[in-house]
Amino acid sequence: MAPVTGATSGAAEPELRAGHGRTPLPVRVTTPTARRIRPRDVFGTLPMATVLALRDFQSRYKQSLLGPIWLIVQPLTMLAGFTIVFGSVAKVGTEGIPYALFAVVGIAVWTTFQSSVLYGTRSIVANKGILSSMPVPRLSFISGTMLGTLPQFVFMVVLAIAAVPVAGRSLGPQLLLLPLCSLWLFALLYAIIMPLAAWHTRYRDVGSVVPFMFQAGLFLSPIAYPLSQVPEGLRTIMELNPLSGVVEAWRYALLGSEPSLLALASAAVWTLLLLVGGWTIFSRAEPRFADVV
């Protein structure tokens, strides 16, 4: 066979001369961005959050004998226990409001708060299979958890509203504030869940500490008794609890009871601070969730 002859292109000459002098290939280094989510993304994740909420709701009660009835068993059992212990035995004063009616408003806030934080703290780790296999917006896990608590929340709100006329009281114009109180509650929940869920991806101890926090928080919040029945020194501490102000706002909207202004102001400040701090922690940790979960 005749040898192939021809000119070598100029681009190939450095490679054909000696064994060195070859043009190095470009190196691309990819580093995770510090932040990649924005506050408006919260609303953009609602379609995905709805799918996750429906999935969790179905799987949670799939092999349960009572099924979704458990959503109302827990708050009703708590209401019965509070009414017997605090209403009948301890005879806690509720400023002329029937004790069961007084307690049901606090329980409506507490059960929503407890369920959302418990499931929300574990939401990122619980969905690590999805997280590591497909590009899913991380905020949808938190939003999905909160959407999953809506059935119980709606039941408790309807129960509280229906109980007011049954107890012989009337709903006042302040009931119009109830939607704002609901938004306030869910804003506080989002602010608390974001850092807890982010920390739980690195430190699994967070998921074990949260239930102990609820055991103390139930009695350090005015769920079963009014702030007016608390001694002065301890009352100030309890008024600095952000959940106390939310409960006070709910009782004012539904029952017309006089709220603690310090508790309302403290809860408003705490909500803003926790929203800013929680968003900062979550947005900075979010790009590395798939690496540490």
**How many distinct beta strands?**
0
Q: What is the count of helical runs?
A: 15
Note poorly predicted spans: 1-19
Specify the overall morphology.
Answer: elongated
Strand fraction band? under 5%
Order of helices and strands: HHHHHHHHHHHHHHH
Radius of gyration: 27 Å
Give a short overview.
With 293 residues, the chain is mainly alpha-helical. The chain is built from 15 helices and no strands.
Question: How are the SSEs ordered, and which strands pair?
Answer:
Blueprint: H1 13-16, H2 41-44, H3 46-60, H4 70-89, H5 99-121, H6 123-126, H7 128-133, H8 139-148, H9 150-166, H10 178-202, H11 205-217, H12 232-239, H13 242-255, H14 261-285, H15 289-292
Give structural notes.
The protein is mostly helical. It has one domain. Helix content is 66%, strand content 0%. It contains 15 helices and no strands. α4 crosses α5.
Supply the key terms:
single chain, 293 residues, mainly alpha, disordered N terminus
